[in-house]
Specification:
By secondary structure, this protein is an alpha+beta fold. It contains nine helices and eight strands. The strands form two sheets. The chain has a four-stranded antiparallel beta sheet. The longest helix is centred in the last third of the chain and has 25 residues.
Length: 190
């Protein structure tokens, strides 16, 4: 929970006494590698904060393959924000890429938390803005650059992801095939 406190303090002024009131709103969960935390169409979508490990959000495309939409590493949040905000089920899956420890909060509890501590509105607004900005940058990469440039620009901008996430998942996130990513990585080395 200390990581969450520090993360919140990066975006708004929060006293330790206030944070003690926050803790009961969250549930800590340990998840195994490849464990699915949320299944498409399921109930009770949560907002997840990663204390350790890595999560991905994906859907199954019309060819039956996983298409990664979002990753979350330590100190990142992940959910289907639109479905969460509407308190509806999501079309996406959320899965642990590696053993992870996460905090989860339901829509109802997050809503109650924001009523209890309105200054957290600032924190969550910042989190949502960052998530939207990251999604916009991903779209820009895909529309503006060659496939090779997409990979290398992403690698340059987000080395933590490229170094900590399996390459086949980075490929699906960038709309590339794992074989193509392997090929351009080998080409760059030579």
């Amino acid at each position: 929970m200390k990581d969450l406190f520090n993360h919140i303090c990066n975006y708004c002024n929060l006293e330790k006494e206030d944070f003690l009131e926050i803790e009961p709103f969250f549930k800590t969960k340990t998840v195994s590698k490849k464990e699915i935390i949320y299944t498409s169409g399921g109930k009770n979508l949560k907002h997840y904060f990663v204390l350790s490990g890595c999560l991905q959000m994906y859907y199954i495309n019309n060819r039956g393959f996983e298409q990664t939409l979002q990753f979350a590493i330590k100190n990142w949040w992940i959910t289907d924000y639109l479905a969460f905000q509407k308190n509806q089920s999501s079309e996406f899956y959320i899965q642990a890429i590696e053993p992870s420890v996460i905090l989860e909060i339901s829509y109802a509890k997050q809503d109650a938390l924001l009523l209890k501590l309105p200054k957290l509105e600032t924190y969550f607004r910042c989190i949502y803005q960052i998530a939207l900005g990251a999604a916009n940058m991903r779209i820009k990469y895909i529309f503006s650059y060659s496939k090779e440039e997409v990979y290398f620009r992403f690698r340059e901008a987000f080395p933590d992801f490229v170094n900590n996430v399996p390459q086949y998942l980075v490929a699906t996130y960038l709309g590339l095939s794992p074989e193509y990513v392997s090929k351009i990585r080998k080409k760059k080395i030579n």
